[in-house]
Design a protein that fits this description.
Blueprint: H1 7-28, H2 32-38, H3 43-71, H4 73-93, H5 97-113, H6 117-129, H7 136-164, H8 172-191, H9 203-227, H10 229-260, H11 263-294, H12 299-317, H13 323-350, H14 357-386, H15 388-406, E1 418-421, E2 424-427
Antiparallel strand pairs: 1-2
Helix pairs in contact: 1-6, 1-7, 1-8, 3-4, 3-5, 3-9, 3-14, 4-5, 4-6, 4-8, 7-11, 7-13, 9-10, 9-14, 10-11, 10-12, 10-13, 10-14, 10-15, 11-13, 12-13, 12-15, 14-15
Length: 428
């Protein structure tokens, strides 16, 4: 298929590819812990697996973003999808900690490979069609497709084991996810077109050349992150978003178990609330451009309002012991998080050129992962000492204070001609 000839056509491809990418992830999310427990793993061992996954993301997020910049978006996306497919099969058939560890390692490798290339392809395609285009509306739809795919997958993945029954029913969502990965790969081959000059020599030689170019590509992105003020703010606010998600993902299940009165009932309630929250994040992403228009086109004002909403929603989870109230706070936090992401992404893309775009997107994912790790290290001791409500309130304050940093963001995300800042080329 030829390259898209309009911004709308490029956006449709972005939305379709994003939904297909996250649907299989949503399928496996509700049963990841349950499947490992059914095969004999303890919660401590499962926690170790998640730590390994986070370490893989931290170590490889930037280098793999650079790989996409120098080798091309499509081959890296396909490699990530293949690794995700294999990880699903390994995880579905694992019977020991070692087996699950292999599955998680493959999952992490796939995650870092495809965390930025599709978005980078979209921005480059849009700018090639219209150099002055604002990519925020398209990125909002991208985030909506992300949340929508996760939500649909979580609902289906949560119900599949109960519908099918049997001793291995918990593995079925993983096998279904592997099949969907094949569909995604086919879609990438057809839809993700790149206008790159043909390479001479073998694929091995091209890969070797790409790897040799990685240090300079990653170095340029790191220098930009350090020297460019708006870029630093974007990464800081993204890290705060990662801390906020820790409160939801780490403390949320405990809170809903308390409110439901039973661990099993709490898990079921949490699964439903999580699916609704994924959908709410998609709604927030779609509403982000409209919200910015209401605030006279100010990106900084919109992000500040969303930071305050994110903090207040977490504080609600420490409030009255009412399931509906807690669920409302949980969902509103995902609305705020989903709406903030495309606005921050749009700021990020005004600060970089195509040569470092996928690397910069990976830097944003890295900041999110670092925020999550900091939260995972700091929040549990606080909860153990002062209680669950104190944990929610502390994270609420941290997220809410992000509104101050938002006031120094650029007011708009309209792209202007590139300039040079320090040693890195920046597109304003």
């Amino acid at each position: 298929m030829s390259a898209p000839v309009t911004v709308r056509a490029a956006t449709r491809r972005l939305v379709g590819l994003t939904a297909l990418r996250w649907l299989p992830v949503g399928l496996t999310t509700p049963i990841m812990v349950l499947l490992a427990q059914s095969r004999g793993l303890t919660l401590a061992e499962i926690g170790l697996l998640f730590t390994v996954h986070g370490a893989v993301v931290i170590l490889l997020e930037l280098p793999t973003g650079g790989l996409a910049d120098v080798l091309g978006r499509r081959p890296v996306v396909i490699a990530g999808a293949v690794l995700h497919l294999v990880s699903c099969v390994v995880y579905a058939t694992a019977t020991s900690t070692a087996g699950f560890l292999v599955g998680v390692l493959l999952l992490g490798l796939g995650r870092v490979l495809d965390s930025g290339p599709v978005e980078a392809w979209y921005v480059d395609t849009v700018h090639a069609l219209d150099p002055d285009a604002d990519v925020a509306p398209g990125l909002a739809k991208h985030s909506a497709a992300d949340g929508g795919g996760l939500a649909l997958g979580a609902v289906v993945g949560g119900f599949l084991p109960g519908l099918l029954g049997g001793g291995n029913a918990l593995a079925v969502p993983y096998l279904a996810a592997a099949v969907l990965d094949l569909v995604f790969i086919a879609a990438v081959l057809r839809l993700l077109t790149e206008d790159r000059p043909p390479r001479e020599g073998s694929a091995r030689a091209a890969l070797a050349g790409g790897l040799r170019a990685l240090p300079s590509t990653v170095g340029g992105a790191v220098r930009l992150s350090v020297t460019d003020g708006p870029m630093r703010l974007v990464l800081l606010l993204t890290a705060l978003g990662g801390v906020g998600l820790v409160a939801c993902e780490l403390l949320g299940p405990v809170r809903f178990s308390e409110l439901a009165g039973d661990r099993d009932d709490g898990a079921a309630v949490y699964g439903v609330v999580l699916a609704v929250s994924f959908a709410a994040a998609a709604v927030g992403a779609v509403a982000a451009p409209a919200m910015r228009r209401l605030l006279r086109g100010s990106t900084r004002a919109a992000c500040a309002v969303l930071s305050v909403l994110g903090g207040l929603s977490l504080a609600v989870l420490a409030g009255p012991d009412l399931l509906l109230v807690a669920a409302t706070g949980f969902v509103l936090h995902y609305v705020a998080h989903g709406a903030a992401w495309p606005l921050l992404s749009a700021v990020l893309h005004t600060r970089v050129t195509a040569a470092h775009r996928a690397t910069a997107v990976s830097a944003m994912s890295l900041a999110m992962a670092l925020g999550g790790i900091i939260g995972n290290l700091a929040v549990p001791p606080l909860v153990a000492h002062s209680g669950l409500d104190a944990g929610f309130l502390a994270v609420a304050v941290v997220v809410g204070l992000g509104a101050i940093a938002c006031l120094w963001l650029p007011r708009t995300t309209v792209r202007e001609p590139a300039v040079v800042t320090g040693r890195a080329e920046v597109g304003y």
